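Lab notebook, bench 4. The sequencing result for the construct came back, and we need a structural model before the next group meeting so we can plan mutations. Quick request posted to the team channel:

Model the 3D structure of this chain.
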Amino acid sequence: MIWRIMGTENGLYKLKLDVGGKAYDSYVTKDGKLLFPQAIDMSVDLNAAAQPAANANAAAPAANVPKTDKPAVELFVMSYCPYGTQAEKGMLPAVRALGSKVDFKVRFVYYSMHGQKEITENLNQYCIQKEQADKFNSYLACFLNASDGTACLAAAKIDTAKLSACTAAADTQFAVTANFNDKSKWLSGNYPLFSVDSALNTKYSVGGSPTLIINGVESSAGRDSASYLKAMPLRHSLQSAIRSSAAQAQAQDSAMEQLQLQHQQDAESEQLIDFYFFIFLLYSF
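Done. Here's the predicted structure in token form:
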């Protein structure tokens, strides 16, 4: 925790706190008797200020995706994109719940934003999915949890000799390293091209990570398991079969988010309590 006195404001000492990377403005009366952990600006129209947030959280209209017995689901990502990995973490439980009722593929956005490590990881995932598909979801789940591709190759029992041959061939076929080394071809001069799925990127007008395509139609489903299950255009006879799986996935996601939030709030509260106790002692002597 970092704190400093910023001066006076409206007859009070203004304090700036930095707790766990978050900034807080607190106030103390000049005699040290009253402490105000947080101030509310009464000149601001709170209803008007809240309106943009409400609009931002409004649900996007559902895509008109044709229903099938086995939806084709393509998730376009960059392997180190935090939004892409968030989408994959939500998608994998949904894919496990649906099992053979879904045709799921990870695709790659036509450019990279996270350096050489992403180029290497993209190629590895592309080849594992292509030639060792039965191990791909296990590998991906490990990578999303640990971000350690080398360890996850061993954990998922990937045939590394076969993988190396595939990545070398894909590198040549799609000019991956050549494009990375030739900055004159980089997108907007900033991002190297990664072209293994370039035709599909063009077909679906993919612009960034993540982009979700279901049965050839872009979907704006939320990045959690329950939302993805709900977005699957299954025929009515199959929807009831996965309803319990959707509820379970949603409960698991919610419980994990609540636990992480509680840990963060507990840590911040402890630091704030320590600070306010210090202020109390400071003005008591």
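Residues 1-40 form one domain.
Will bring this to the meeting.
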